[in-house]
């Protein structure tokens, strides 16, 4: 049975870790947290998660069991992750879904295939879907609405359904970037 923290225990934990938990957030027992965790309203963090320093978990996001989340990660609003590994400095935009079962409902598949792995400094655009077991490299940009059905190498921009390589991220021209 999960231990429910009393209000004073919760206040002490929040103060000790410099955390900010918004109303309605639920954190199951059995996860490890770094410092400065911030949750949006109604975020749910299940058991067996390992979460680094300076992580933001947005409103209505659901972190199922078994995620490993690095430092300086932002998981925006209405995201679903289960069994996913995110390296440092990853940004997950609103409404991103990491699926966890290639043939629902198959517990054996979920355990054998596992969740996706995302490399450092990667950005995943809004409404993207990442299939189970996918490996996304470092410094990747996944376009909004993309469905990632196969592994993505370091430094690429992928878009579409299914997601295909558009170009290298280093080839992107940003109109606000100094030349």
Task: Report a brief summary of the structure.
This protein has about 180 residues and is mainly β. Helix content is about 10%, strand content about 25%. The N and C termini lie far apart (about 60 Å).
Helix content: 10-25%
Radius of gyration: 17 Å
**Approximately how much beta-strand content do the residues carry?**
25-35%
- The total count of strands amounts to 22
Largest sheet entry: 9 strands, mixed
Q: Which architecture of the domain at 18-128 would the CATH scheme give at its second level?
A: 3 Solenoid
Number of alpha- plus pi-helical segments: 2
Oligomerization category of the chains in this entry: single chain
Written as H for each helix and E for each strand, in order along the chain, the element string is: HEEEEEEEEEEEEEEHEEEEEEEE
Order of strands, widest sheet: 1-4-7-10-13-16-19-21-22
CATH names the topology of the domain at 18-128 as: UDP N-Acetylglucosamine Acyltransferase, domain 1
The class by helix and strand makeup works out as: mainly beta
Assign the CATH superfamily of the domain at 18-128: Hexapeptide repeat proteins
Mean pLDDT: 90
Which CATH top level class of the domain at 18-128 fits?
A: Mainly Beta
Poorly predicted regions are: none
| Overall 3D form | globular
How far apart the termini lie comes to 58 Å
């Amino acid at each position: 049975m999960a231990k429910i923290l009393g209000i004073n225990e919760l206040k002490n934990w929040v103060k000790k870790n410099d955390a900010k938990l918004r109303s309605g957030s639920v954190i199951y027992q059995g996860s490890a947290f770094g410092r400065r965790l911030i949750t949006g309203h109604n975020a749910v963090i299940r058991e067996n998660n390992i979460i680094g320093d300076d992580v933001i978990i947005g409103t209505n996001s659901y972190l199922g069991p078994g995620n490993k989340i690095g430092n300086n990660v932002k998981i925006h609003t209405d995201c679903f992750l289960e069994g996913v590994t995110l390296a440092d400095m990853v940004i997950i935009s609103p409404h991103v879904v990491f699926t966890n079962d290639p043939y629902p409902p198959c517990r054996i598949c979920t355990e054998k295939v596992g969740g996706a792995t995302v490399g450092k400094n990667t950005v995943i655009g809004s409404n993207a879907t990442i299939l189970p077991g996918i490996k996304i490299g470092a410094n990747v940009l996944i376009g909004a609405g993309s469905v990632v059905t196969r592994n993505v190498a370091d430094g690429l921009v992928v878009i579409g359904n299914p997601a295909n390589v558009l170009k290298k991220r280093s080839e992107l021209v940003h109109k606000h970037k100094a030349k």
